[in-house]
């Protein structure tokens, strides 16, 4: 089934994305699976959404060459559109309007891949290691009439239910590690961490990044 929300690293240190409002474009939606939250003593199904910021650049080594790419930032959410869930106001701010009752019954997050927005980034200092991190505090619709950028990296979408063990090769390592710790992955692999046969390849969104008055 699709990655539907309903109402109910590489080891290197980089400076955080600067604080402020940036134009971003979603290049990543990945299902993290279900994990036990010890703080609240309950299980939570989580998803991560990642954005490129075209105006903030970084040079990295890829296949033996130095390439110039946009900085990226991501945020983890509980996969829920309930009134108290953080994902719902983020998506509604991005859309520029509230969800209808029918949309709250099931919204496919694949719809946001390739869609542009405005990102409000704030800095927070970690109490555990003292490092400063950039965090996506709010997401807003693009200004009316403003050109919407497209992704420079290959768009990535992964759903455990849809794709099983067919995790995209270019998915960030930290995301793969979180997926491997999920309840669903344990069931998929029989609890031994071995990859089960892939049901189908992950979809290609490279030509599906359109834009209209309502982004999704």
Describe this structure in words.
By secondary structure, the protein is an alpha+beta fold. The protein is built from five helices and eight strands. It has a domain of 139 residues. The strands form two sheets. Strands 2, 3, 4, 6, 7 and 8 form a six-stranded mixed sheet that branches. β2 and β3 form a beta hairpin. The longest helix has 9 residues.
Alpha-carbon distance between the two ends:
19 Å
How much helicity do the residues have? 10-25%
Largest beta-sheet details: 6 strands, mixed
Shape: globular
Query: SSE string, helix = H, strand = E?
Result: EEEEHHEEEEHHH
Strand content: 35-45%
Q: How many individual β-strands? A: 8
Low-confidence stretches: 196-212
Structural class: alpha+beta
What Rg, in angstroms, do the CA atoms define?
Answer: 17 Å
Count of alpha/pi helices:
5
Mean pLDDT: 87
As an assembly, this protein is single chain
Summarize the structure.
This protein has 216 residues and is of the alpha+beta class.
Descriptive labels:
216 residues, alpha+beta, six-stranded mixed β-sheet, 5 helices, 8 strands, 37% strand, globular
Detail the topology: elements first, then pairings.
Layout: E1 4-5, E2 20-37, E3 42-62, E4 65-78, H1 87-95, H2 101-104, E5 107-108, E6 116-125, E7 132-140, E8 156-158, H3 160-163, H4 173-180, H5 183-189
Parallel strand pairs: 2-8
Antiparallel strand pairs: 1-5, 2-3, 2-6, 3-4, 6-7
């Amino acid at each position: 089934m699709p990655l539907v929300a309903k109402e109910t690293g590489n080891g290197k240190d980089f400076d955080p994305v600067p604080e402020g409002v940036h134009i971003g474009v979603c290049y990543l939606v990945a299902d993290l699976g279900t994990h036990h939250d010890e703080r609240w003593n309950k299980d939570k199904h989580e998803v991560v959404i990642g954005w490129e910021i075209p105006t903030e650049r970084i040079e990295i080594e890829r296949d033996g060459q130095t390439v110039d790419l946009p900085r990226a930032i991501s945020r983890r959410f509980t996969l829920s559109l309930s009134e108290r869930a953080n994902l719902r106001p983020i998506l509604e701010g991005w859309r520029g309007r509230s969800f209808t009752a029918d949309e709250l019954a099931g919204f496919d997050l694949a719809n946001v891949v390739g869609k542009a927005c405005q990102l409000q980034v704030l800095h927070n200092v970690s109490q555990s290691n003292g490092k400063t991190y950039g965090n996506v505090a709010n997401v807003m619709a693009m200004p009316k009439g403003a050109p919407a950028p497209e992704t420079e990296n290959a768009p990535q979408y992964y759903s455990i239910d849809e794709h099983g063990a067919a995790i995209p090769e270019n998915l960030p390592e930290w995301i793969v590690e979180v997926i491997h710790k999920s309840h669903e992955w344990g069931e998929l692999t029989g609890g031994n961490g071995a990859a089960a046969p892939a049901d189908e390849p992950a979809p290609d969104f490279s030509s599906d990044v359109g834009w209209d008055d309502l982004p999704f």
